[in-house]
TrEMBL record:
Protein name: LacI family DNA-binding transcriptional regulator
Pfam families documented for this protein: Peripla_BP_3
The keyword Cell cycle appears for this protein: no
Alphabetical list of Gene3D superfamilies matching this protein: 3.40.50.2300, lambda repressor-like DNA-binding domains (1.10.260.40)
Species of origin: Roseburia lenta
Domain spans labelled HTH lacI-type: 3-55
Keywords: DNA-binding, Transcription, Transcription regulation
Keyword Signal: no
GO MF annotation terms: DNA binding
């Protein structure tokens, strides 16, 4: 039979706590001491499989996808990357994961919250893309550790992990202005969510800091889907509404729909009108011309949300945090 942790501590004349921290990869011991403990454990036949068993926690983390109007979450590939990151990190940290979709129009939220209290849920990651502050408070009534993903509310004390929309849009609009040397227009979503509101702030900030007037930027409202944006943009073009020489679009779906409409009416992209999107979805890569856009590390966002939730579960007294994940510019041929 192999040596126990307590016996190993006695043999090395150190505390059992130090042995536990070293074997479990936790901070609190020096690198040299950790190496010494692990080497001695291997030599003495310590059963390292015990550590793996300890990692399998009881209870599940719940990833809850809240759907309101479903205009945004209807495009699933974006959010599957988030959930892949959540799943990978839960598996790595030894937690089970269950995914629950809650529909505003059909599900009884009171019942959902009550079931969360009794179903073995140990923590919640709430995808808040279409969430309101009022609904967020309802989920907090479950009295479980919770992290908001892709949303944040100033009036609610809840940790959140979200996109740095202002930074990404500022980056995109600045690049658009520098390349085109023209007053940029804005292809806005006709559905209002916090992400799009923040992107408007980033757009206006970039316009002002390039010495231009925000009031001179043309703005068109389009549905946040390829088909909807295509139809809306055709109507705008056919109505004779003046068009800008370049546009920032609130997301790639809007950008792609607008490009298809413009090309159908004889405009050349980017020679006549340049367009940049936001999200870096796969359709943008195969579009002709391929779409310049802003990339979001969605898998990393999901992993970060799990890390923050586990930290909150292990230390309930810790302060809440708001983590904004930076984005990067993908240069292609629509600008």
């Amino acid at each position: 039979m192999g040596i126990t942790g307590k016996e190993l501590a006695e043999k090395l004349n150190i505390s059992a706590t130090a042995v536990s921290m070293a074997l479990n990869g936790k901070p609190g011991v020096s690198t040299e001491m950790r190496k010494r403990i692990i080497a001695e454990a291997e030599k003495a036949g310590y059963d390292f499989s015990r550590l793996q068993l300890k990692k399998n926690h009881s209870g599940d983390i719940y990833c809850i996808i809240y759907r309101a109007h479903n205009a945004i979450l209807n495009y699933t590939p974006i959010f599957s990357e988030l959930t892949e990151g959540i799943e990978a990190e839960c598996r790595h940290k030894g937690y089970g994961l269950k995914t629950l979709q809650v529909y505003e129009n059909t599900d009884d939220l009171t019942q959902v919250v009550e079931e969360l209290r009794i179903c073995g849920c140990v923590g919640i990651i709430l995808l808040g893309t279409e969430l309101s502050a009022g609904i967020c408070r309802r989920f907090l009534e479950a009295s479980l550790p919770m992290v908001l993903l892709d949303a944040s509310f100033d009036a609610i004390d809840c940790s959140s992990v979200l996109i740095n929309n202002v930074q990404g849009t500022y980056l995109a609009t600045g690049y658009l202005i520098d390349r085109c040397n023209e007053q940029p227009g804005h292809l806005c979503s006709s559905y209002s969510i916090a992400n799009f509101s923040e992107r408007k702030t980033g757009f206006q900030k970039a316009v002002r800091e390039h010495g231009m007037s925000v009031s001179k930027s043309l703005s068109h409202e389009l549905a946040p889907s390829i088909e909807g944006a295509f139809s809306d943009m055709l109507e705008i073009i056919d109505s004779g509404t003046p068009l800008a020489k370049c546009y920032f679009a609130d997301n790639d779906l809007i950008a792609i729909g607008a490009i298809k409409a413009l090309k159908l009416r004889g405009y050349k992209i980017p020679d006549d009108i340049a367009i940049i999107g936001f999200d870096n979805i796969s359709e943008g890569r195969i579009l002709d011309p391929s779409l310049t856009t802003i990339d979001i590390p969605r898998r990393f966002m999901g992993q970060t949300a799990v890390d923050q939730l586990i930290r909150q579960m292990e230390d309930p007294a810790s302060h809440t945090v708001k983590l904004q994940i930076s984005t990067s510019l993908i240069k292609r041929f629509s600008v």
